Amino acid sequence: MDQLLRVMNFNVSSDGIGAGEHQSLERPFGLDSPERLFAWAGATASWPMRTDPGGSRGLDDYFTRDFARDIGAEIMGRNKFAPHRGPWQDHGWRGWWGDEPPFRTPVYVMTHHTRPSFTLADTTFHFVDADPATVLDRAREAAQGKDVRLGGGVTTIRQFLEADLVDTLHVAVSPVELGSGLRLWESPDELLDRFHLEVVPSPSGVMHHLFWRR
């Protein structure tokens, strides 16, 4: 069985935007009210950061629950790890997620400014300056036969799509229009030369776009 590279639960607006252009410590997504994009996941019973009982079941919950299934490593861009640009001023920043990041696997952070690896709980972050194919090879080796999740952001996913390395994508399209920002696509039809597509509507208003290789 091949180790797949999977984009999972990636959120965009109805006009294809997944993040704003001006990320900061106060605005990790570079957007005002970014929960407009991913509120569907936070409402589910399986949302990993849920602190109170309850939450919805059904289709949205299935995707939230499936996030970690058979995943052995993650790849992300530097902007998903930190708001900082350029050389690291210090190594005190250890990600947005506190002492127990939700990944629970090796994570490969793509950056032109490397720094030593470190471990928080059961997640180890590695910082790599390499092309997508090389990073994927390292992540697959670390995943020990399991699949690799491509976590984003938008620019990183586009790099891997352009290198034709992505096997499956699940993109959750929320019913909001943002107008400007970092765009995953003008239309999902752009990917149909390489992928099959099935679109599944959810009662939450989100349209789940499921792509798999032709």
UniProtKB/TrEMBL annotation:
Species name: [Kitasatospora] papulosa
Domain (Bacterial bifunctional deaminase-reductase C-terminal): residue spans on this chain: 43-186
Upper taxonomic lineage: Bacteria, Bacillati, Actinomycetota, Actinomycetes, Kitasatosporales
Name of the protein: Dihydrofolate reductase family protein
Pfam annotation, one family: RibD_C
